[in-house]
Specification:
Blueprint: E1 5-14, E2 18-27, E3 30-39, E4 42-48, E5 54-61, E6 66-70, E7 73-75, H1 83-95, E8 97-109, E9 118-129, E10 141-145, H2 147-155, H3 162-175
Parallel strand pairs: 4-9
Antiparallel strand pairs: 1-2, 2-3, 4-5, 4-7, 5-6, 5-10, 8-9
Helix pairs in contact: 2-3
């Protein structure tokens, strides 16, 4: 395979979560234009309570125009924020729980064809009730789910979120 050479990267739009670029690249002697979406990264949490149930969040996702059932997660506050700190913050903000123990599970690149978003997924156990701290534009409900029911929702196509599927299935593979 011949190396691919980026000739130019031009910022097209700066958003609140992502930046959109047009890359000009040379591939096999041909000049091409590719879209590139930059994301600073995120963290996700598989939070398991004392009953062995996973804490899930239900929230509206504008891109899908529907409510989704997901693992708690959120973007880094800055590109250099440690993902573990982000995971702890997002767990408490979205669910109202703090973890006594957190352990790295897996890293997921969400959309490799055009976006660099990387999400580190952590396991949170020894949960302690705290308080939910939602942003003004967030409307999130917290639900407890058992593993078998979540697997059914994954396999029947109800849960389609990549970070949620990766986190749940990694947890099952490592601990069940």
């Amino acid at each position: 395979m011949e190396p691919i050479k980026r000739l130019n990267r031009e910022l097209r739009a700066r958003g609140t979560v992502i930046d959109l670029y047009k890359d000009t690249v040379e591939v096999n002697g041909t000049i091409a234009e590719w879209d590139y979406v930059h994301h600073d990264g995120a963290a996700c949490v598989v939070a398991v309570n004392s009953n062995g149930k996973l804490l899930m969040v239900r929230q509206y996702r504008n891109a899908l125009d529907r409510f989704t059932l997901e693992l708690p997660a959120g973007k880094l506050d800055s590109p250099d924020e440690p993902t573990l700190e982000c995971a702890k913050r997002e767990l408490e903000e979205e669910t109202g729980y703090k973890a006594g123990k957190m352990e790295y599970l897996i890293t997921v690149n969400t959309t490799v064809a055009f976006c660099n978003e990387k999400i580190d997924v952590y396991l949170a156990t020894d949960l302690e009730k705290s308080a939910q701290h939602l942003d003004p534009e967030e409307d999130i409900s917290v639900e407890e789910w058992n593993i078998e029911d979540l697997k059914k929702l994954i396999y029947d196509g109800t849960i389609t979120d990549g970070k949620t599927i990766s986190g749940i299935m990694t947890y099952i593979a490592k601990y069940m």
